[in-house]
Amino acid sequence: MSSSLILSISFNTPKLLPKTKPKPKSFHLNSYPILAVSISSWQTKSFNSLVTRTSMKDRDASSSSNQDLDDDDEEEPVLVGEDSAVFNLADQNISSWIVFTLILGFVLFILQVAWIDNSTGLGKPFINSISALSDSHEVVMLILILIFATVHSGMASLREVGEKLIGERTYRVLFAGISLPLAVSTVVYFVNHRYDGLQLWQLQDASAVHQLVWISNFISFFLLYPSTFNLLEVAAVVKPKLHLWETGVIRITRHPQMVGQVIWCLAHTVWIGNSVTLAASLGLIGHHLFGVWNGDRRLAKKYGEAFEDVKRRTSVIPFAAILDGRQKLPRDYYKEFIRLPYLTITALTLGAYFAHPFMQAASFHLHW
Questions:
Q1: pLDDT of 39-69, one tens digit each?
Q2: Which parts pass through the membrane (predicted)?
Q3: DSSP SS3 for 274
Q4: Consecutive H or E run containing 71
Q5: Which of 18, 117, 182, 241 holds its CA 20 to 30 A away from the CA of 326?
Q6: What is the pLDDT of residue 51?
Q7: Domain assignment present for 141
Q8: Sign of dihedral through CA atoms 309, 310, 311, 317?
Q9: Bridge partners, 18 (sequence order)
Q10: In whole angstroms, what is the distance from residue 114 CA to residue 120 CA?
């Protein structure tokens, strides 16, 4: 009985529970009102100070960034005209330049036979007919310039109408075919008679005059021939176009040919110092001043508001737009001159100086 009683009683071993550490008393700021207010005030001030400093830095950075953008916009306005004197070899077509060379050779051959050669050409009879109008070399010189200017500027003014009638290329060939012989006649007559007429002054022996005249002539030729930007158009190999240039020398003056002609005339008039040279200079300058008005008129008619934008930030007088702030030169402005057309003009200008004796001999040989 006892054994069964013992067996019937369940025997449970007590479980061992892990010892737990007493929890520390929690710290509540609410228990200390004064300290709570102080800490809360310090946290608020610190946060506000951090936000203020961050906001000021962001505002300064944004202002600086906007200022840089404004400066860039002021320095480099968006161009509406064309970038002048661009010449990329990768874009050139060899066959086009072969055609250009052939056309140039053919034109020079025709010019020699039909105009320059005294035995077959019309150049000498033309000069003789003009010379018969007056015994004054000054008057003959002015008449020759007037004829050339009338034909050259007149055909330029009629270009739009002419191109619609016979096409751009045909009109360019006609324009060159008439203008070129007249230009040759005018140049040859000037070379042959430049020391005729009344001597007004003699400065060739003065100190530094030769150097000044040489530098002036170099600059004048550098400005005179921006048309070399598009030789293929000059020869009508590609379709000719009336361009609205805006970079390079155009930043200095909107009419570089006029400025170059004025410099050339002043230099030669100072050097030679007689009435024939003075008459030639007055005639050429007058022609190019008319060209300034006529050129702007044609560009305004073709390009409208785009030309007005270019006109506002360029000037006829060299450097005027730059000095009064209308023309903002880019930082790398000099790169606009380190291009093949400008380098070609430089080489040809130097070559023309050293070729002066040969050109004078060729003119004397014609006896015009």
A1: 445 454 444 454 445 444 555 555 554 554 4
A2: 97-116, 139-158, 170-191, 211-232, 340-359
A3: strand
A4: helix 33-75
A5: 241
A6: 44
A7: yes
A8: positive
A9: none
A10: 6
Residue 228 has what pLDDT? Answer: 57
- The rounded distance, in Å, linking the Cα atoms of 191 and 268 is 11
Q: Please indicate, yes or no, if residue 185 is contained in any of the structural domains.
A: yes
Low-confidence stretches of the chain (pLDDT beneath 50): 1-21, 23-30, 32-40, 42, 44-48, 50-52, 54-56, 65, 68-73
Q: Which of 135, 169, 145 is nearest to 278 (CA)?
A: 145
CB count within 10 Å of CB 350 equals 12
Amino acid present at 36 = A
Q: Does the residue 258 lie in any domain?
A: yes
pTM for the whole structure: 0.76
pLDDT score, position 42: 46
The answer to whether the CB of 209 falls within 8 A of the CB of 203 is yes
- The Cα–Cα gap between 328 and 70 comes to 13
Q: Residue 297's domain spans which residues?
A: 90-366
Residue 356 lies in a domain: yes
Cα-only R_g, the chain: 41
